[in-house]
Amino acid sequence: MSEDDTRGVGDHSPADDCGHSIDELADYLATGSSPYEGHYRQCPQCQSGLASLRSLGDLTRSLAEDDARIAAESDGWLQDILSNLRLETRAGRSIPVASDDPDDGLSETEGAVVALIRRTGDGIDGVTIGKCRLHGDITEPGAQTRVELSVTALHGYRLPTLVDALRSAVAEALTTHTELDLQGVDITVTDLFGTDGAGEDQP
Amino acid sequence: MPRVTPPERNIQLDALPDVVLCERATDGDTAAFEVLARRYGPMMRGYAVRLTGSTADADDAVQETLIHAWDHLGELRDGSVVKSWLMRICGRRSIDIVRRRREHADADSLAEVSDSSPTPESATISGSGLDALARSLEALPAEQRQCWVLKEMGGLSYDEIAEQLGLTSESVRGRLARARARLMRDMEGWR
Q1: Please, which residues have CB within 8 angstroms of residue B64's CB and are 6 or more apart in sequence?
Q2: Which ipTM score applies to this complex?
Q3: All domains of chain B, ordered by start, with CATH?
Q4: Is B155 within 8 Å of chain A by CB?
């Protein structure tokens, strides 16, 4: 980017002929506007100054990428962090389960039911469950409940077939493992995934 | 359709887009959260090392960021911006850690320590331009370096930097100008 003699951009100061400092140019790059835009476009000195500022910014971002690459190469530090996190699964609400002895007070957690739904969905090829919510007064025995799912479908699968399969699998799992009165499973396909052909070799 | 114990398809998580991982993590799926942590952890750590000048502080910053993210992921309306959301939290935590440490130590002696000790990474950076920039950045006074890194690596505006560092926009502008002058001088030979 060397413009023969005008190289020393650091020297570009109000003392120079055009009168626009490198700091002013940096403000222009940061804010995207300046009353002198027209001048910058024509002035070789300002053009050279802008180019230097951009390349210093680009080099800083390359350094950031390099930092990230190096950090990714040795992930012991990340392992430590992840094991320190000791992530707790959110248990959520408590769902009653009937028992022969009413004093037993059996229940299962909302988190366990959501995990069950997720496992069921993950077992169906071509679909991945994102959001999973239970709607209804599920802390009451036999509560009327709707399940809301948002799913990502793999490219190359027929959507109605996928959605039907998911709906009946979830319904069956819930009927088997809970006492919720399932009113319906509302499924929204939020995204198609693998449109770059990843799913194409599977019918 | 498979009914009995479905096969594990966890390998797929790695390939899922941020939005889906966020939804799953918000619902308590720790595996999905770990994929996000792996996806953006290295980037956050690099950023934090540049801001704090120390790998130990950077690890603390990344850990605090992930804990905060796990607790507040549900407040993120749009999962597709999780990367910039994480980077923003990480920047804030890094600055907080430096500030906290400064409250425990004499500011001057600390600035000297953090500014003169090169980070372990710098030794392994290949490519002379990056190496020179890394050294030049490390030689800057902490606040100038932070302003520069927040702006050029974090993409923050003058006002946002001012808010994070508790400075006025004008003094951010001044620090950036000094950092720039120094970096340009140091990098003169590399252009």
Answers
A1: B93, B97
A2: 0.80
A3: 14-117 (1.10.1740.10), 119-191 (1.10.10.10)
A4: no
